[in-house]
Design brief:
alpha/beta; two-stranded antiparallel ribbon; TIM Barrel; 12 strands
Length: 377
């Protein structure tokens, strides 16, 4: 049998991943004023010891108003940085996965309640809410308040916020940053003509709509070490008929990102319009990833209802993508990588404390787990 593509290494920028299994960013809505809690320690820690190649921490707001909800992670303060460093330190000490973080700004889709409280927009006048911003003064739907259209000062602040968060991520010890430009959040709002109604240099034709996201990316690229990896998550389509964001435009945008120094692209879709008509099903977004990979040549990550090991292996072997990212599948089965190794006759790293759990654990135990404290003479 040929060796597994899924369990082969891949290099992104200056970072080598031990395999091509990625834990996708998954909002947990469990932060305290943007700071990670014990929930994040448990949530991310379980994946760190499960044999995956890369863990991407959930969408992390670059400012308080950049968060989707009051419960979302943030990275704008020393307190945020210290709390997240504790979680990442645990993952590094006990696990073997490369650690990454997704930096984000929710734009007009910010200031919403936690999903288990209904997820409704929180008015700016509410003590738990805040004024949202966007490319244009156009709400996502009738339930949301009208956002403030960003002026030059507002745009400059957002660039500065992304830069500051990237620097904090580097200080924490993350090896990968993914800039969130998908799912109808602020950067996607600039890219799509459905949400960008500006008539200045940041609107209109594709070149104008790409301008601000590319400025943000360039600013992060300038401060993020070349010895690490920097990528972008995009939505490849709005799933809306007519004048909207399309995979053709997404390919052109990805080419511009690649030329600007992007090390990988994470291809998702949708999220920018309540009028979207998504044709969901197993691997329903891999075709977008395949198109962009073929046309641009950038290392590409596929997401979306990838649930079975042989399905993931086929996506990689057929050239649709270079990596696969799982979210709900990982929530349901945090040991997905071990089970995939068994199905594909491959090897996965494991926590030595769990070595009796499965015959699939034929790889090497995580080195340094448990950590050995230095002796005090």
């Amino acid at each position: 049998m040929r060796s597994s593509k899924l369990f082969s290494p891949i290099t992104l920028g200056g970072i080598e991943l031990s395999n091509r299994i990625v834990v996708a960013p998954m909002c947990q809505y469990s932060a305290d004023d943007g700071s990670a809690t014990d929930w994040h320690l448990m949530h991310l820690g379980q994946f760190a010891v499960s044999g995956v190649g890369l863990i991407l921490v959930e969408a992390t707001g670059v400012s308080p108003e950049a968060r989707i909800s009051p419960g979302c992670l943030g990275l704008w303060s020393d307190e945020n940085q210290e709390a997240l460093a504790r979680v990442v330190g645990f993952c590094r000490d006990y696990g073997n996965a490369t650690m990454g973080i997704q930096l984000a700004h929710a734009g007009r889709k910010a200031s919403t309640d936690l999903p288990w409280y209904g997820g409704a927009p929180i008015p700016a006048a509410d003590p738990r809410g805040w004024q949202t911003v966007a490319p244009s003064a156009a709400a996502y739907n009738e339930a949301f308040e009208t956002p403030t259209a960003l002026d030059d000062d507002g745009l400059a602040k957002i660039v500065d916020d992304f830069v500051a968060a990237a620097r904090r991520a580097d200080e924490i010890g993350f090896d990968v940053v993914e800039v969130h430009m998908a799912h109808g959040y602020l950067m996607h709002q600039f890219l799509s003509p459905l949400s960008n109604q500006r008539n200045d240099a940041y609107g209109g034709a594709l070149e104008g709509r790409m301008r601000f996201p590319l400025e943000v990316f360039a600013a992060v690229r300038a401060v993020w070490p070349k010895t690490k990896a920097l990528g972008v998550r995009i939505s490849a389509t709005d799933w809306v008929e007519g004048s909207s964001w399309t995979v053709e435009e997404a390919s052109r945008f990805t080419a511009a990102l690649y030329a600007a120094g992007a090390d990988f692209i994470d291809v998702s879709s949708g999220g920018n319009s309540p009028a979207q008509q998504i044709e969901a099903g197993p691997g329903y977004q891999t075709g977008f990833a395949a198109t962009i990979r073929r046309e641009v040549g950038i290392p590409t990550m596929a997401v979306g209802q990838i649930t079975e090991p042989r399905q993931a292996e086929a996506i990689l072997r057929s050239g649709q993508a270079d990596m696969v990212a799982l979210a709900r599948g990982m929530l349901f089965n945090p040991r997905w990588a071990w089970h995939a190794a068994e199905a594909l006759d491959a090897e996965a790293t494991f926590a030595p404390q769990y070595m009796r759990s499965s015959r699939a654990l034929r790889g090497e135990p995580v080195p340094g787990n448990p950590p050995v404290k230095a002796r005090k003479d």
